[in-house]
Amino acid sequence: TGCQLIYDQQNLCPYSRNCICSELYPILCVLQDNGDDSHRIAQSPVVHVRGLCEAVVEADLVEALEKFGPICYVMMMPFKRQALVEFEMVESADKCVACGSSEAVYIAGQQAFFNYSTSKRITRPTNSDNPNSGNKVLLLSIQNPLYPITTDVLYTVCNPIGSVMRIVIFKRNGIQAMVEYPFCLCAQKAKAALNGADIYAGCCTLKIEYARPTRLNVIRNDNESWDYTKPYLVRRERGKGRQRQAILGEHPSSYGDNGYGSHCPLLPLPGNSRYKLSSHDIPEVVAYPLPQSSSYNHGSSSVAMVSGLHPAKMNCTRIFNLFCLYGNIEKVKFMKSVPGTALVEMGDEYAVDRAITHLNSIKVFGKRLNVCVSKQHAVIPSQVFELEDGSSSYKDFAMTRNNRFTSQGQASKNIIQPPSCVLHYYNVPPCISEDQLLRLCSEHDVPGFTKFKMFDAKPSSKTISGLLEFDSKTHAVEVLTVLNHYQIRIPNGSNPYTLKLCFSTSSHL
C-alpha cells in the first residue's frame, strides 16, 4: 500500500493506537529498499520516531539523536509512543534514518525506529520563531516527582530566567503547575532553557508546554499557589532560607527524615548540557525558603481516590500490592456508593503524588485506572461490605511488614519506577525454578513471562532474585498486582517465603 499511508496530514500515524506501524516498519524498509521507487518517502529534515517508551522526554531524544546533527524542534506524541524530530539540515536526517535501518538505535534504553516524515517542517503550536507570539503562561508537568514540588521550588527554578508573576500547582493528571511571566518572550526563554531538565538529579523532570489561560488567578499565597505581585496574600510563615542548587542538583535532604531518599552530594551542572543556563541567566547556587512541615497540610491529602477498578478481580490486598511500590499504605476502603472505586490512605501526600504520577491511566484487568487526590484526609472504616470475591471492602495495612518505606534505610533501597514489562523478583527460595514460577502464574490466571533471568547468588545466600519479562506492560502490572507478597511454602520449611515484586529499571532482557 505504500509507506505514505503511515502518516496523515497532521504528521500522526493513523495506526498508532495499536502501534501496528512499529511491527510493519522492518517490512516497509525492505519494500522501500527492494520495491518501486515510487513508494519511497522523499527525504525530509523531519524524522518520524516510533517505538518509544512511555517515560521518554524530549531531552532523551535530543541526547540520543544530536550526534547526527543539530536539532531545531521536537514534537512528542507520548500516548502514541512516537515523536517527530526536525533537524536543521536534511543531511542530518539522512544519517539518522540510515543508521536506524542498519543498526539498533536506543532511546532511553529502548530500541526506536526511524523514517522520513512527509512534512518538511513540524507545525509549531505557536509561531515560536516570532518573539511576539506564544503565551506568557507555561504549563509544567513534573514527571517522576520523587520529592516535594512547591511554589518555592518552582520559583527558584523559573525566576532566574524572567521575573515570575504567579504560580499555581494542581494535581489532576500527576503533578502539574502553571507559571505566569510578564512577557511572552520570558516564557519562551524559560521553555527553551528548562524543557526536559531535572529539578533534582534523576527525578522531577520538567515537561513544558504553553498553557491555554493567558493569566492566572491566585487567591492565597502558600505551597500550592503564589502571586508575587501581591505580597499581602501571604497567610503562612516562610521557613528559613537554605542554600541549594536547583536544576540537576541534590535531592532535598531536609525531607530525608520521612523515609524517602538518601542524602546526596551537590551535583554540578554538566558543562555539555543543552539545559545549562549561562552565568548571567541563573546563579550556580540559589537560595529558597524551605516551608515548615505544618504548611503542607493545606490543599494536600495523604488519601488517593482510585476508580476504574475491576469489580471481580480487584480487592484491598491487590490494591496494596500495586500501590505499596510508591509509599506506605495505611488503609484501603472500597466505596459502596461508587462501584469500582476505592480510597487508599498512604503514609503522606508525597506517596500519593508518586502513585498518581506512575499509576494514573494504566490498564489493569482490561480497565483503565484513574488515580487522583481525595478530598478526604483519612479513611474511616464505615459501611464495610463484602466484595465480589468474598473479601472485605476495608483493610488496615498499618502494621503489615510488607510496607517498604518504614525506615529511611529501607526506603533508600526502593527504586521508584513507572510500570514496565520487566519485573524484578526477589526473596525467592533457591529451590524454586523457572517452571515453578510459570506454574504459579498459570494457577492464579495471570499471564506468564516470556523471558527469565536469575541473578548469581552467593553460596551462603538463602534467597534468589532475578528478572521476568512479559509481552506487555499490562501483563506485568497484572502479575505484580496478583502475586506480589505471595507466600511460597517449601517442603519441611518452617516459615514461608514472601515473594517480592517490583518494576525493573531494565526495559528488556
TrEMBL record:
A single MF term (Gene Ontology): RNA binding
GO biological process, one term: mRNA processing
Keyword Phosphoprotein in annotation: yes
Keywords linked to the UniProt accession: Isopeptide bond, Phosphoprotein, Repeat, Ribonucleoprotein, RNA-binding, Ubl conjugation
SMART domains recorded: RRM
GO cellular component: nucleus; ribonucleoprotein complex
Alphabetized CDD domains for the sequence: RRM1_hnRPLL, RRM3_hnRPLL
Keyword RNA-binding part of the UniProt annotation: yes
SUPFAM superfamilies named among the record's database cross-references: RNA-binding domain, RBD (SSF54928)
Source organism, top-level taxon: Eukaryota
Domain RRM: 45-119, 302-376
Protein name (record): Heteroous nuclear ribonucleoprotein L like
